[in-house]
Design goal:
The protein is an alpha+beta fold. Helix content is 20%, strand content 39%. It has one domain: tt1808, chain A. The protein is built from 2 helices and 9 strands. The strands form 2 sheets. Strands 4-5-6-7-8-9 form a 6-stranded mixed sheet, sandwiched between helices. This is Type I restriction enzyme HsdR N-terminal domain-containing protein.
Length: 147
């Protein structure tokens, strides 16, 4: 896998029938290692180890219904009251972070209504604060601190 613009961590990788799998500490199982999963696992590690987000409040690959269609949110972090705090959309490193990616996370966050969103391909990261009353979006210099 390609080196990312995220802290390196000691991940567990194994081969199953010639295909790589990585251990997901949130789901407590090995999952197929794709370029997007590589980014997701690095973002989860970042949130846990560098920003001290509580592991119990982070959900990976959570389902949601959008326009009567089942979708999956890459990462959702909940606050201590159980409300969505941060929604993260991960893309593979070779995928550019275009307006279409921002449109996707905006659609997902229309359901979650989290005050923060992050888009990352592991090389570039955009963190935004969202005011749902005014629809104002402000770009942040860093990931939001867990409150």
């Amino acid at each position: 896998m390609v080196a990312l613009n995220l802290p390196v961590f000691d991940c567990k990788i194994k081969q199953v029938e010639g295909k790589p799998y990585i251990f997901d500490s949130l789901r407590r199982k090995y999952v197929r290692l794709s370029p997007e999963e590589w980014v997701r696992q690095h973002i989860v590690n970042l949130l846990l180890t560098h920003y001290a987000y509580p592991k119990a409040l982070i959900r990976a690959e959570g389902g949601l219904i959008l326009n009567k269609t089942q979708k999956r949110t890459d990462i959702v972090v909940f606050d201590r009251q159980g409300e969505p705090f941060l929604v993260v959309e991960c893309k593979a490193p070779h995928i550019p972070l275009t307006q279409a990616v921002f449109d996707q996370i905006t659609r997902y966050n229309h359901i979650h209504r989290a005050p923060y969103i992050v888009v990352s391909n592991g090389l570039t990261h955009y963190c935004c604060g969202i005011d749902h009353n005014t629809t104002e979006v402000r770009f942040l210099d860093d990931f939001p601190a867990f409150e």
